[in-house]
Design a protein that fits this description.
Elements lengths: L11 H21 L6 H31 L5 H29 L18 H8 L3 H4 L10 H15 L5 H18 L7 H15 L4 H25 L5 H26 L4 H6 L2 H8 L1 H17 L8 H41 L8
Helix pairs in contact: 1-2, 1-12, 1-13, 1-14, 2-6, 2-8, 2-10, 3-6, 3-13, 3-14, 6-8, 7-8, 7-9, 8-9, 8-10, 9-10, 13-14
Length: 361
């Protein structure tokens, strides 16, 4: 099967850029506000926390859809390209985190959200380097990096999704997997990722087919998320924040995915898509992976460099958001230029140089 040449989506990088801003802002606030916020603090943090969580969901949905949209049936090339895109920047970021732990004092707890990745042990460090923290049920030494092993494992399993010849079989497997994780492994931070990624990848693959087939699957995708949300509402423990987040995830994911699909198919004018296609958001989106990998280290260093002595919580939050974001972008830009961009170029070269496997159409 050869993937057709579909038009580029200039606003897709803008989604990543906007999501990155929300995530960095959320972690900046978590650096200042203690783990046991007051009711007033909680009222302010709750909407930002939900927005940041949905920003992570947007990364999964968008990545799954775009990978499926360009799927060409070559498993070996797909795997090699994903490894080149993900692993070199990740490993350098982990090594820089280890250096910051060992040389800059980040192995010492200071009462911020950074402490969730402590203690700095050999076991936790090796689990982070080997991308198995999700399987081991532990937080990596750099706490936002928990998403990378989850995404990496989903990416490696993505080609298996096309083995489902019938859409309803695929959706049933995604529903079962999501509910199994939600109820049997409630401590796992993102049970919604399974269905979100499977549905997004398969819908992206179907985008290469006639539009009536794509639209029919889109209806099934929406119904699947609603089924999961209804099941969790009926049988889950809504006193737990993780359960409530899962319901929100399952209600928002299909809306986001169908909005992306609609923008892809229609290609018509949209103020929101035009805003996301602005060069500021697209510039951030292209570099979002590198910035994301190191932003927690940068935020903690900015905090310990003097922001922790700023008088007044509001002023400290503003300082953390502004200084932390600028510093994160600068450090991320260096990682992007030195590591990610060359790795991405090597990934792109695989498409041109690796002989393609012969597969039936």
């Amino acid at each position: 099967m050869s993937a057709p040449r579909l038009p580029q989506l200039p606003w897709s990088d803008g989604i990543r850029g906007a999501a990155l801003v929300l995530v960095v802002a959320w972690h900046a606030v978590l650096t200042v506000v203690p783990d046991d916020p007051t009711p007033a603090q909680h009222a302010v943090m709750l909407p930002l926390g939900v927005a940041a969580r949905l920003a992570l969901l947007s990364f999964i949905v968008l990545s799954g859809y775009l990978l499926g949209r360009h799927w060409d049936g070559d498993l070996r090339r797909f795997t090699i390209r994903r490894c080149w895109r993900i692993l070199p920047p990740y490993w350098i970021a982990v090594l820089l985190t280890i250096a910051a732990m060992a040389c800059l004092g980040l192995s010492r707890a200071e009462g911020t959200h950074w402490d969730s990745g402590l203690p700095f042990t050999a076991e936790r460090t090796w689990a982070t380097l080997l991308l198995v923290t999700d399987l081991a049920g532990m937080t990596p030494i750099n706490h936002p990096l928990w998403t990378v092993p989850v995404e990496f494992h989903l990416y490696l399993l993505a080609p298996l999704i096309v083995l489902f010849r019938r859409e309803w079989t695929l959706l049933a497997a995604g529903i079962a997997g999501t509910l199994a994780i939600a109820f049997l492994a409630p401590d796992f931070v993102a049970p919604h990722f399974v269905l979100a990624f499977m549905a997004s990848f398969w819908l992206g693959v179907r985008r290469q087919r006639p539009l009536d087939e794509t639209r029919a699957l889109a209806v099934g995708v929406g119904a699947s998320f609603l089924l999961v949300a209804g099941t969790v509402l009926f049988a889950g423990d809504l006193s737990q924040s993780a359960t409530r987040y899962l319901v929100v995830d399952c209600l928002v994911a299909p809306v986001l995915l169908l909005w992306i699909l609609h923008g892809d198919i229609s290609g018509g004018p949209s103020r929101l898509r035009a805003l996301l296609a602005h060069r500021t958001f697209t510039w951030l989106g292209v570099r979002s992976y590198s910035i994301y990998l190191l932003h927690a280290v940068v935020l903690e260093l900015v905090w310990r460099a003097g922001v922790d002595h700023v008088a007044g919580e509001t002023l400290a939050i503003v300082a953390m958001c502004l200084l932390g974001f600028v510093a994160s972008v600068l450090v991320g830009q260096v990682l992007f230029r030195v590591v990610e961009a060359p790795a991405a170029a090597r990934s792109a070269a695989v498409r041109r140089t690796l002989p393609r496997e012969r597969r039936p159409a």
